[in-house]
Amino acid sequence: xxxxxxxxxxxxxxxxxxxxxxxxxxxxxxxxxxxxxxxxxxxxxxxxxxxxxxxxxxxxxxxxxxxxxxxxxxxxxxxxxxxxxxxxxxxxxxxxxxxxxxxxxxxxxxxxxxxxxxx
Length: 119
What we know:
mainly beta; elongated; about 0% helix; about 60% strand; four-stranded antiparallel sheet
């Protein structure tokens, strides 16, 4: 099992920055991909960014050039640096970890952290 705890959300004005953190505990050695997703009111949960254990990253088009995902494998922590925030970035942000086993994989989600960007 893997437990994920997010932190760093809050209220910020448009153009501001926030840094989210997600710390994993439990069976962390088998975690491959970690990432951030978000869900705005009335909308489906969507991908924000992912990063593999080796450091390969993937971003949603809407956040490219503004958000940066990074990872500290020694601390089992993934970060999301969010710059130039826009009101449309307002959402609950969820951390996800994918645990890769020999013949299967499992997904784990954090409890979410609220990010609110005021105009």
